[in-house]
Amino acid sequence: MRTAFIETLVELAASDRRIWLLTGDLGYSVLEPFAAAYPDRYLNAGVSEQNMTGMAAGIASTGAIVFTYSIANFPVARALEQIRNDVCYPNLSVKIVAVGGGVAYGAQGYSHHAVEDLAFTRVLPNMTVVAPGDPAETRAATRALAATPGPAYLRLGKAGEALVHTSTPDFALGRALCVRQGEDCTIISTGGVLAEAIRAQQLLASEGVEACVLSMPTVQPVDREALAAAARRGPIVTIEEHGEGGLASVVGDALIDVGAAFRMKAIRFSRTPLSCAGSQLWLRKQAGVTAEAVVDAVRMMLTSAHC
Amino acid sequence: MTSSALARAIRADALRMTAAAHASHVGSCLSIADILAVLYTGVLRVRPEVPTWPERDRLIVSKGHAAAIVYAVLARVGFFPVDDLASYTADGSAFTGHVSHRVPGVEWSTGSLGHGLPVGAGIALALQRGTAEQRTVVLLSDGELDEGSNWEAILFAGHHRLRNLLAIVDANGIQSFGSVSEVLELEPLPDKFRSFGWSVREVNGHDHAALRQALAPAPDGDDRPIVVLARTVKGAGVSFMENELRWHYRSTSEPELIAALAEVEMVP
């Protein structure tokens, strides 16, 4: 995803001189093409996320579109008040980009686990929150964010994620993408765990359950129409590489707001930090964020619905 | 209007506003009265009739709690009617107790300390990389320098030679819970800034002629950012408020207000 992001940004910056890129001294072997092509709009702010974010707001106030880049929690949690007061309140075009969403940097330890970032960002004023599901969604999201004024958080995985979309997705900010049709229930996924949602759909299909899979790259503002339709369809299971306050909370809040009747289970991380080393997949399993957990949740709700 | 007349007027405004609103921070307002008065009489290039004039100099008041006197100076130089000041902190008013960008002439909303200098560094960098020659001025308190975000920006601005960035530290020596030297010693502050690559100008923050000289741009060939360490007195101009921590919090009673106004308006 990070490759898809930087390639798209380099391409966009060629025709849009308003685009800047600031990094908190991270992005070695990733950001160099931008730095080489647009040195007057690139800046390594040093290891100083608060200053980077405040400066991004200042630069954006002169009419620029400023992307800030770092990994995991660093550009969000470390600079949360700068994002709140200096970026979101005056509604400036600062796009905060984090690579390593979820436990992509799992083995590095809890400091590098971004498992609360969606919760931190989605409640902020004027903020758009996007967690693409694959490189194709990343390209589309980067374009859409550059073209849309105002603050945004773009939560990426790392590198080497498989393509889920076989063609260019019909991406629009605030819209869910239907990646598999089905009428028995709905699996909703955000971010790089999308491949796991597809695997759950396949497991369910082998049992004769036809699940609709929605990729929900935009967590805020959320696609209420798609959610209301999902609630009418049947049980909903959300899956995310994130703890409380993320996708499941967004979906629940939206359905409460529209007054829908719904049945839903959340497959997500608990609030207990994962304090051991492990690969992304291993840690997901430890946390119970797997296709099998989605399948169990669907089974449970379909069975109890028939009682 | 001369800077002395402006300083007198905005001191009186801030006293009246904080009294009427039963608001805090009158001491913090009075310590920057002279700095603001000098800035808005010929130092800052602004057009009150066009607050967002693209070629304006930017002033970010990072010590946003001194809102009353910031609104007062903006009114007195013509950004909006002086009568509007009466709504300070009232229900539904844009004039919040910490400076708000909804007020014409206010560049940035602040209140939580340690935000203004990073923003100012960003603006200065963007303007410097463009063709613009405007200056970006950030007014900070000394207590505010406890915030680490300032030192990130100070390090950055020195390294990147942001010559069009000017920081003014209102060094009144008193912060929320005691004197700066008791809470977290900042001195030797000039040495700290110098070691971060800044040009340091130390000045009596109530001497208009000295301030005007200190706020002038750097001479050709000197591309360091500038910090004016304005040695000030918290509550300056009202004898019973000067150097008194409690005037960070208290608002005046009616007799106190009358006494304070008499002192302020007597100043030549």
Provide an overview of this structure.
With 307 residues, chain A is an alpha/beta fold. Chain A is built from 11 helices and 12 strands. Chain A has helices spanning 2-15, 32-37, 49-60, 80-88, 117-122, 135-147, 194-206, 224-233, 247-258, 280-287, 291-306; strands at residues 19-23, 42-44, 65-71, 94-99, 128-130, 152-155, 177-180, 185-189, 211-215, 218-220, 236-239, 264-267. In chain A, strands 2-1-3-4-6-5-10 form a 7-stranded mixed sheet. The model of chain A has no long low-confidence stretch (mean pLDDT 96). With 268 residues, chain B is an alpha/beta fold. Helix content of chain B is 38%, strand content 12%. Chain B contains 10 helices and 7 strands. In chain B, the strands form 2 sheets. Chain B has a 5-stranded parallel sheet with strand order 1-2-3-7-6, sandwiched between helices. In chain B, β6 (199-204), α9 and β7 (226-231) form a beta-alpha-beta unit. In chain B, α1 crosses α3 (33-43) and α1 crosses α4. The longest helix of chain B is centred in the first third of the chain and has 19 residues, at 3-21. The relative contact order of chain B is 0.17. The mean pLDDT of chain B is 97. The A-B interface holds A 40-41, 43, 45-46, 48, 50-62, 64, 81-82, 85-86, 89-90 and B 101, 108-112, 114-115, 117-127, 129-130, 136, 148-149, 152-153, 155-156, 159.
SS elements, strand count of chain B? 7
Q: Quick one: biggest sheet of chain A?
A: 7 strands, mixed
Biggest sheet of chain B, open or closed, and with what strands and sense? 5 strands, parallel
Sketch the topology of chain B as an H/E string, one letter per element.
HHHEHHEHEEEHHEHEH
**Fraction of residues in β-strands of chain B:** 5-15%
Mean pLDDT over the residues of chain B: 97
Percent in helix of chain B: 25-40%
Order of helical and strand elements of chain A: HEHEHEHEHEHEEEHEEHEHEHH
Distance between the termini of chain B: 14 Å
Question: Strand arrangement, largest sheet of chain A?
Answer: 2-1-3-4-6-5-10
Report the uncertain regions of chain A.
none
- First-last Cα distance of chain A: 44 Å
Q: Count of helical segments of chain B? A: 10
Total number of strands of chain A: 12
Structural class label of chain A: alpha/beta
Biggest sheet strand order of chain B reads 1-2-3-7-6
In percent, how helical is the residue content of chain A?
25-40%
Question: Averaged pLDDT of chain A, please?
Answer: 96
Shape of chain A: globular
| Oligomeric state of the chains present here | heterodimer
Quick one: overall form of chain B?
globular
